[in-house]
Amino acid sequence: TSHALVITLGTGVGGGVIADGRLFRGAHGFAAEVGHWQFDPHGPRCACGEPGHWEAVASGTALGGLARARAEQGSAPGVLARAGGDAAAVRGEHAGESAGAGEPDGIAILGEFAEVVAVGFAGVANILDPELIVVSGGLVELGDVLLDPLRAAFLGRLEGSAHRPPVPIVAAELGDASGMVGAA
């Protein structure tokens, strides 16, 4: 494609932009630092220390925090069981496994997480108008357990979605290895 976004959802959130068939680097080589877009100035602190970055709510780290919070509240018994009954040990993988097994608590957590991720995807897509969005990073290993609710939430937020071609959201063919292969 000539116009695409790559969004990496892993420990953090990263991005890449293809514009007119070329990698867009920006004036100083810092383009597409989408994880450090200030998504909510009153939101949780990002690992970099700034408040409200998208990464603070849309990364694998954030998914783990959300799952832990739900386990501590008592609303995630399936997720909690996958962490050996220890709420402090709950990670994003436990929520993904729970959702993949069809457990309502895991599905609810992934749905809640996908809503926040979709807000960011739609914001970037509304600005750049891509033909395609490719998802890479560790969370892409969740497959359709994450991508299906993400696609549904995204469609409802994309400006003019009834009047434009659809913007497919697809998993990177190389999965979590995409970054390593690209660097090599």
Low-confidence stretches: none
Summarize the main sheet: 5 strands, mixed
Q: How far do the termini sit from each other?
A: 22 Å
The shape is globular
Instruction: Work out the number of β strands.
Output: 5
Please report the number of helical segments: 7
Order of helices and strands: EEEHHHHHEHEH
* Helix share, percent: 40-55%
Q: What does the radius of gyration come to? A: 16 Å
Summing up helix and strand content along with how strands pair, one would put the structural category as alpha/beta
Please report which band the strand proportion falls in: under 5%, 5-15%, 15-25%, 25-35%, 35-45% or over 45%: 5-15%
Average pLDDT: 94
Question: Strand sequence of the main sheet, in spatial order?
Answer: 3-2-1-4-5
- Characterize the quaternary organization of these chains: single chain
List the SSEs and their pairings.
Layout: E1 4-9, E2 13-19, E3 22-23, H1 55-58, H2 60-73, H3 77-82, H4 92-100, H5 104-128, E4 132-136, H6 144-155, E5 169-171, H7 178-183
Helix pairs in contact: 2-4, 2-5, 4-5, 5-6
